[in-house]
Every structure is written in C-alpha cells, then in structure tokens.
Specification:
19 strands, 9-stranded mixed sheet, mainly beta
C-alpha cells in the first residue's frame, strides 16, 4: 500500500493561545512512512447508498519521536507529538455497495508513526440533481479515534470496546442562505452535529452503514435581513413549517414524520 507525501495538518489544543509552529525535532533526516511487512490493519468499510458517494478518508498518524515545538503566550516551550496526514480513497469491493480501506496501525519509519484517527463518510456526488448551481454541503461524517488523543475536531461523543458498527439515519437537507451572497446547498442531516465521533482503541474493524431516507426531503431558507425576530424557516417532509433559531433541523421531528409515514408509529 502506498502513501502520499506529508500534508499540512491543523492542530487544535486546549491551550488556546499557542503560537505558530516553530520547529520540528527528532526526525530531521526522514519523516516518511515505512510500514512493516507483518503489520496489523484496521479495516474501515462504508456501505454507500445509491444517491451518495464515499468520501476520501482523512487519516492522522502521530509520532512520539518526531515532535514539534511551539511556545505559549508566556514564551514557554511546549512539545507535542508530531502529526502526519494521509488521504486514502476507499476501494469498491467487487460490484457491491461496500467501499473499504485497510489502515496500517504501525506507520513505521524513523518517526515510529502510529495510527491515531480517521475521518470519513458519505456525500452527494451529483448535487446539481437538486437544481442548477447547487453545491454539496456537510453531513454524513464519522470520526473514529484509535488512541488516547483528541481528533482534529475534538474528543469522542461515545466510547466502544471491540469492533465498531455504526448505523445511523440521515435525510437530504436543501438549504438556501442569502446573507453575504446567495448559496443553495444539499447537505445530509443527521442526529447532532455533522460529525459523530467515536473512540475505539481496540477495534480492528469499523463498519458504517448510513440509512439514507432520500424521499424525506427537508428544506430551509435563511434570513434575508438580520434583525431580532428573524429566524430560518424549515419546511419538513410532511409540509409543516417552523421558524427556528437553531442552525440545524430538528432531527427528532424528522424521525417522527418518517416513522409515521412508514406506519411504524
């Protein structure tokens, strides 16, 4: 398995006022990967619905050897584990709807890279099916953390033992925004925020099966004038309309509408 060259990775810490990256230490000679032949792998598999496509997986490796040095607001030296980002494109398994990447746990090399976390998910491959100039928005994402460090988007929402199986409900969300210029997006609405984060330090297999309810479309229109009392308007699949201060839809309402329509409520 081949790897791309090093990419720039933004590091978020709780220190808050850390200044820019100053220097790398410990591995000036070679920061490349060199996974051992007898490596162990974590298989990440995504079952992709017809309307969606699998996103490129964003994989983070860490090194306790090749640290980087920065300084806080008081000028004190701070050493953090080195980061290395790798993009990996999931491969289709035969003629199935399953797409998979096998992540080497041991990245090897002089820096002794170790797998830290992966960000992956599904998105709309053809957003213009919802109208001309419609762009693909966020949603349908998953982050899995394999060590005791936070991901680029923070800590875990849930922790599991052993292999991880994720099945979650999602809905198409067509949104229009007007402030700062008109934009129409097709996003994927799920429970909570756009990314659900899991910690699975003992997992060797991760399986993600998004349950995409494409017939239950949600639409929203943002405010055109920013003033007190103006709120985004959400039109739910059953035709009900709500003005809501929240930036995201009411997931429980979406679920209730679908379950009632399917005779499950």
């Amino acid at each position: 398995m081949s790897f791309i060259e090093e990419t720039v990775v933004t590091v978020k810490t709780s220190v808050g006022l850390l200044v820019a990256l100053v220097s790398l230490t410990g591995c000036a000679q070679d920061r490349s990967f060199a996974p051992p032949v007898d490596n162990q792998y974590i298989a990440v598999t995504v079952k992709v619905p017809d309307e969606l496509v699998a996103e490129t997986m964003k994989v983070i490796y860490r090194s306790p050897v090749c640290k980087f040095v920065t300084y806080d607001a008081r000028g004190r030296r701070v050493e953090l584990d080195g980061y290395k980002g790798v993009d990996m494109l999931p491969e289709r398994q035969g003629q199935s709807d399953l797409y998979q990447v096998k992540l080497p746990i041991d990245g090897g090399g002089t820096c002794k890279w170790r797998l830290s976390n992966v960000t992956f998910g599904v998105t709309h491959g053809n957003p213009t099916r919802y109208g001309e100039n419609v762009v693909s928005g966020a949603g349908g994402g998953v982050i899995v953390i394999f060590d005791d460090n936070a991901s680029p988007r923070g800590g875990a929402d849930a922790e599991v033992d052993g292999d991880l199986v994720i099945r979650r409900d999602y809905y198409p969300w067509i949104s229009e925004s007007f402030l700062g210029g008109y934009i129409k997006r097709i996003s994927i609405a799920g429970e909570g925020y756009f990314y659900k984060t899991y910690k699975a330090t003992t997992a060797r297999e991760v399986y993600f099966e998004p349950q995409y309810h494409s017939k239950f479309e949600l639409r929203s229109a943002g405010v055109k004038v920013k003033k007190e009392g103006n709120n985004p308007v959400y039109t739910y699949p059953d035709g009900t309309v709500y003005a809501d201060k929240q930036w995201h839809p009411n997931f429980a309402r979406l679920q209730a509408i679908r379950l009632k329509a399917e005779g499950k409520q």
